[in-house]
Design brief:
alpha/beta
């Protein structure tokens, strides 16, 4: 298409109309960072606290950009780690955000990193054993896995083992894809 032909097409179609002020204000509102109402965050924190105290696992499922991550991270911050001389550290909440296609090695490495344990090379089995020892030794009361719909289906068995073998509740956080991924994995989480 030549420049002349492009000009003819543009002239035929005409100019774009300018957004009116009301529409422009609505566009700006939608582009701004949104905040979840405090009452909803409190309800989620109460639910998480109930799961932690009763040692039960669960799922937090919702649309993207609705505040799940912020609310779960705020819950972690309310439960500060404690270190008393001569005792293992208490880390009430382990909160991790996992990468795409998260396998067992990624999962356990991220848990170890959160607990400030240096991950050294090893097989998946060695890293899993190390993560289990550290989770047990650090007196962890709950593990929250954000973006859990990114977990590879085979890795859900490893997540379930955290609950089954260590009796640490696991909360999976994600979009509605999470339910589909869990069903595909054959897991009972």
């Amino acid at each position: 298409m030549t420049d002349r032909q492009a000009q003819a097409v543009a002239q035929q179609l005409g100019n774009f109309s300018v957004n009116n002020k009301q529409l422009q204000a609505e566009i700006q509102r939608l582009q701004s960072k949104s905040f979840v109402p405090l009452s909803q965050v409190k309800n989620l924190h109460d639910w998480l606290e109930g799961k932690r105290q009763s040692k039960l696992s669960g799922r937090v499922v919702g649309e993207s950009r609705t505040g799940k991550t912020m609310a779960c991270d705020a819950y972690r911050l309310r439960h500060k780690p404690k270190q008393e001389h001569g005792l293992p550290p208490t880390v009430p909440i382990v909160y991790i955000q996992i990468p795409q296609e998260c396998g067992a090695r990624d999962l356990f490495s991220m848990i170890l990193e959160h607990l400030k344990y240096q991950v050294i090379k090893g097989t998946v089995s060695e890293i899993r054993d190390r993560a289990f020892r550290v989770l047990k030794g650090c007196v962890v009361e709950m593990v929250i896995i954000d973006e859990a719909d990114r977990i590879k289906p085979k890795t859900f068995a490893e997540v379930r083992d955290i609950f089954d073998k260590l009796e640490i509740p696991v909360i999976l956080v994600g979009t509605d894809r999470l339910d589909t991924v869990i069903k595909r994995s054959g897991s009972s989480l």
